[in-house]
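Quick one, probably user error.
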């Protein structure tokens, strides 16, 4: 089982955090609490209206510390200190905003 918890996430991102948890079969209303899920190969997660494959490094982790943060013109899902997904809020200067993301994204 993998434990998932959100830290340092402003309440205005509760919907995004809840959507992510619900896509994993967890309770969205309990987004501020630690929850546990069995992460299986082939599972996907959803946030920002995107479906994301759960890569091996995360499938093998026993704990995910997550946060949704607003940074450099985007709202980002960060899991275990890695940006996993992002939504760009303002499409002006799109190339510059995409360039601000870590290369690992």
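Nope, works fine. Designed sequence:
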């Amino acid at each position: 089982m993998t434990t998932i918890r959100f830290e340092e996430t402003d309440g205005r991102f509760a919907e995004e955090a809840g959507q992510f948890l619900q896509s994993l079969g967890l309770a969205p209303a309990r987004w501020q609490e630690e929850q546990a899920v069995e992460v299986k190969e082939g599972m996907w997660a959803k946030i920002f209206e995107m479906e994301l494959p759960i890569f091996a490094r995360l499938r093998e982790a026993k704990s995910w510390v997550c946060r949704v943060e607003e940074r450099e013109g985007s709202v980002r899902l960060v899991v275990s200190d890695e940006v996993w997904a992002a939504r760009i809020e303002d499409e002006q200067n799109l190339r510059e905003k995409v360039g601000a993301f870590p290369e690992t994204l």
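DSSP finds three helices and seven strands in the chain.
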